[in-house]
Each structure stands twice: as structure tokens, then as C-alpha cells.
């Protein structure tokens, strides 16, 4: 929707401030291995161009979702995240592929992201298994980040 409704982004940003306007960009690799933005309107643009355009219209944060990695537990697509985060000056949120706390750390330290999102990691024990609904141990989480910072 944001790709085809730039006026909506401008109005929301003017009314509520750009810090409260977040756009999610769904990205897939095409058969040639190039990242392409996908949407219901079949827009097939480069991630950098779309991210910059959204920021120009007032988006204050961008969530980048790797459609190819979503639900795989294979880790975030760090190359995609670096590409997106280096293109804009707003916070970038990683989405799609988290399988461990270490993936969170990698998205921030190697992917250049400001935040991470995860779903399947909290709902399933392993791919194809039933619902678990769990949370990572907070001590493990903090220890992983602390080791990277110090």
C-alpha cells in the first residue's frame, strides 16, 4: 500500500511525526539472485530505491522482510539488510528467518539494523512442528548482546 499511496505516508508523517510511520518492504531474490521488492501491485524495484523513496515521503522506520527466509529458521539475510540499512538514515528492522538469539545479534552487528522482529522462532520448536510459544532466556539474550558490545 505504501508504494502506491505516497500521499498517505506524507499525511501520516505530517499529522503524527515521521518517527511513528513504519513501512514494511517485502523482498525476494529473483531467478538471477537480485533483490526485488514484491507487493500486490507487482512493483518490481530495487530495495535501495524503494527505501529511499519511502523516506523521502516521510517514513521514519523501515522493516525489511525477506520473503524467501520467512519461517525458515535459517537466519536473517544479512546481505539484504546491509543493502537496505546503508541506503537510508532511518532505523531498519530485520524480519524473516530468525532461528536463534545469535541471529538477532548478527542482524544488528553485521546487517546494520536497529531492531529485529521474529515470529516463528517464538511459536515453533522446529520447522513443521506444533505450536510451542516460548521466549528466549533473557540472560542468554543479554549475554549475547553484551559480548558483542564489550
Could you walk me through the main structural features you see in this protein, from its secondary elements to its overall organization?
This protein has 150 residues and is α/β, with parallel strands linked by helices. The protein has one domain: Alpha-Beta Barrel (TIM Barrel), CATH 3.20.20. It is 37% helix and 15% strand. It contains 6 helices and 5 strands. Helix 4 (101-109) runs parallel beside helix 6. It starts with 5 loop residues before the first helix and ends with a helix.
- Our count of domains comes out at 1
What is the helical fraction, as a range of percent? 25-40%
Sketch the topology as an H/E string, one letter per element: HEEHEHEHEHH
Mind telling me which CATH architecture this is?
Answer: Alpha-Beta Barrel
Shape: globular
Rg? 16 Å
The major beta sheet can be summarized as: 5 strands, mixed
What is the beta-strand fraction? Answer: 15-25%
Task: Give descriptors for this structure.
alpha/beta; 150 residues; TIM Barrel
Short recap of the structure:
The chain has a single domain, classed as TIM Barrel (Alpha-Beta Barrel). It is an alpha/beta fold. The protein has a five-stranded mixed sheet with strand order 2-1-3-4-5, with helices on one face.
Record the SSE blueprint.
Blueprint: H1 6-16, E1 22-29, E2 35-37, H2 47-56, E3 61-66, H3 78-87, E4 92-95, H4 101-109, E5 115-116, H5 120-123, H6 138-149
Amino acid at each position: 500500500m505504501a508504494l502506491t499511496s505516497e500521499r498517505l505516508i506524507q499525511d501520516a508523517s505530517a499529522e503524527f511525526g515521521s518517527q511513528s510511520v513504519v513501512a514494511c518492504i517485502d523482498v525476494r531474490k529473483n531467478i538471477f539472485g537480485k533483490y526485488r521488492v514484491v507487493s500486490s501491485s507487482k512493483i518490481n524495484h530495487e530495495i535501495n530505491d524503494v527505501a529511499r523513496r519511502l523516506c523521502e515521503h516521510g517514513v521514519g522506520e523501515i522493516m525489511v522482510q525477506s520473503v524467501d527466509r520467512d519461517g525458515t529458521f535459517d537466519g536473517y539475510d544479512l546481505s539484504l539488510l546491509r543493502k537496505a540499512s546503508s541506503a537510508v538514515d532511518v532505523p531498519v528492522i530485520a524480519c524473516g528467518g530468525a532461528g536463534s538469539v545469535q541471529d538477532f545479534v548478527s542482524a544488528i552487528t553485521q546487517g546494520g539494523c536497529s531492531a529485529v522482529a521474529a515470529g516463528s522462532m517464538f511459536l515453533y520448536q522446529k520447522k513443521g512442528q506444533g505450536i510451542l510459544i516460548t521466549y528466549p532466556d533473557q540472560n542468554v539474550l543479554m549475554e549475547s548482546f553484551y559480548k558483542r558490545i564489550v
